[in-house]
Write a structure and sequence with these properties.
247 residues, alpha/beta, 5-stranded mixed beta sheet, 3-stranded parallel beta sheet, 10 helices, 19% strand, globular
Length: 247
């Protein structure tokens, strides 16, 4: 197959390695991880990148694969003229873990637990600490979500709603996902120092590249991957099983 692969650069090291070994011909394009700070911008960027990939080229791809998850609804509404395949995950943490089952085994119901990986730290740098509370608080009043509250409520009430829906992180433990064969830099030591400075204990778990490898190699079983038919859109389901479907 001839595939177009649009991927978050949090997977840059792993994706490049897997693409080089894939039986398929793949054009790979990365988007910066920090676009995730505004899901609306990420959604618009993904749509524009998909459109440019398919319309501004003479290449005839068999399918488009996405190295993203639902990502704060950033994937909702995405559509293209060829089959589109995306992991049935809420975010890249599950992809790093290799499966939804492994994610639940390690994180349980702590879906917003603080975590990191080599790619996450390298691409996010100081923001890799779960996009720190300070950054969240300094930027939230510019988000579309907060502005929507202001259309109905006064600023004090809007602040209260925001703080209720986005509680301050107070975890005493953070998870570092270690992926064998891809720990090239000293990111684990750097992240450990960051956590010690925040008085947070670091827990190391083994990651797994199986889900990303299967996405790249075309092993798209319906339980783990959503195949969106041409010209259909992604809709969110928001459970831990299907996560998303096509309209």
């Amino acid at each position: 197959m001839f595939l177009k692969f649009i991927c978050c650069d949090v997977f840059a090291r792993i994706a490049c390695d897997l693409v080089s070994k894939s039986p398929h011909i793949i054009d790979l394009e990365f988007l910066p991880m920090l676009i995730h700070m505004d899901p609306k911008t990420l959604n618009e960027t993904l749509m524009k990148t998909i459109e440019n990939s398919l319309n501004a080229s003479n290449r005839k791809y068999d399918a488009l694969i996405l190295g993203f998850g639902l990502c704060g609804n950033a994937a909702v509404g995405l559509s293209c003229s060829i089959p589109m395949i995306i992991p049935r995950v809420h975010d890249c943490c599950t992809v790093h873990m290799g499966s939804k089952e492994r994610f639940l085994e390690v994180f349980g119901n702590s879906f917003s637990a603080r975590w990191c990986s080599t790619g996450y730290y390298e691409r996010g740098r100081l923001n890799a600490i779960g996009f720190s509370d300070l950054e969240q608080l300094s930027n939230h009043k510019t988000t579309e979500e907060y502005r929507a509250y202001l259309e109905t409520y006064d600023e004090e009430t809007a602040d209260y709603i925001w703080e209720t829906l986005h509680p301050k992180m107070d975890e005493i433990e953070s998870v570092y996902i270690e992926i064998d064969g891809f720990e090239y830099s000293n990111t684990k030591e750097l992240y450990k120092a960051d956590m010690e400075g925040a008085d947070v204990k670091l827990k190391t778990v083994k990651g797994d590249i199986t889900m990303l490898r299967d996405l790249i190699n075309g092993n798209w079983n319906n339980e783990r991957f959503l195949t969106v038919p041409p010209n259909k859109k992604i809709v969110g389901i928001y459970d831990m099983d299907r996560v998303m479907e096509s309209e």
